[in-house]
Amino acid sequence: MNEISVVGGGLAGSEAAYQLAKRGYRVKLYEQRPEKMTEAHETGLFGELVCSNSLKSMEINNAHGLIKYELYQYGSLIIKEAYESRLKGGKALVVDRSAFAKKITEELEKNSNIEIIREEVINIDRGKPTIIATGPLSGKFLSNNFKDVIGNNNMYFYDAISPVIIAESIDFNKAFWGSRYIENDDAYLNIPLNRKEYYNLVEMIKNAKKAHVHDFDKELFFEGCLPVEEIARRGDNTLRFGLMKPVGMDYPDGFEKPYAIIQLRREDEEGKLLNIVGFQTRMTYAEQKRIIRSIPALKNAEIARYGSMHRNAYIIAKEVLNYNLSLKKNPDIFFAGQITGVEGYIESTMSGFIAAVQMDRHIRREAPLEFSKNTPSGALLHYLFFNVAKNVQPMNINFGLFSPIEEKLRKKEKREKMVERAKRWIEIQKEEILRDM
User: Fold this and answer.
1) Does 433 map to a domain?
2) Which domain holds residue 125?
3) Are residues 10 and 142 in the same domain?
4) By 3-state DSSP, what share of the chain in percent is helix, strand and coil, each rounded to 5?
5) pTM (2 decimals)?
6) Which helix (DSSP H) or strand (DSSP E) does residue 325 occupy?
7) Strand pairing of 155-161 and 273-276?
8) pLDDT in tens, 286-324
């Protein structure tokens, strides 16, 4: 039986290990936690979510929903456990992060083909088939092991985590449940702000003291996960027309149409913990507490977890990797997860799945599977390897990455055709993928 090492127990590593084990390989899954924790993680569980507990839209006419559909068709562990850990979240797949990680961990621990090794990997055996899925916090690890092949292509951006509030400390007389554009849905707790309250909040955020972060060279933010203070800095109305837009809702009796809305989302099944949507931040803890408690409904808020910031590393895939996610200078070493240049939980999961499929074919001396650009998987790969931009940024899945529909149709009709085309190609890829198992 062939033995493969998977380094890293996040979403990508967990998915890769599971898929390889299903294909009959003996997998050594290395995870340093809890023996050595990172600056972002809190547990030793596999698949722990360190930022939001939302995996984004489930609607298949949305690119985020379509990539979930694709992974589900292929038998993804992460998607299976996400649906089983689902919380109320409107059109989004929101999970109880603790239950989600526990389910993934239990599934991997009981798999007889997977040996879990709880230790930090310092050096990589370059002569052994290995998938590197060490996550976006592994800049030093990459430099120590692959400086000769990655060189100066190792880049970084900043990611941030939103604060979490204990629900019983919230004044529910000044908030109401509801979702934008969905009737009778209680996925979000909405805190309305009038004009004065909104601009007061913006000024406080703009002038807040920022936490000092060691070893950060310069501020490079990923546009899909900006700190709330960076959004506020770009204009006084940026928040009101973005994550705090007061639209698409019916307001309960006693609530007038607000100037802006702050939304909170459940962290657990019981709704005892709520995270402030979009309020990822690098402000000091003292400033976070002061500003959060300036919000009417959060005057007496108890903060279960403060927002924080960490450095994320990634490589320029087209410079150092082959299309199958293996190193150009060592085809036995594969990469998966956010370090490949994808951004997002499910995108990372997909890269872990792809790495496992391609590793299997590599060991069997078969040509890499060509993922169609008409599918989410192929669209992401095409971006990683055929992007012409000089400064490539990590990318979420979106329909702009797919092959275009050439017909002159309205946007909605084009989207529908794109989805139907994707489903057909997913079936074709599924047949090929399952044939290999």
Assistant:
1) no
2) 3-154+315-423
3) yes
4) 35, 20, 45
5) 0.84
6) none
7) unpaired
8) 999 999 999 999 999 999 889 887 778 889 899 999 999
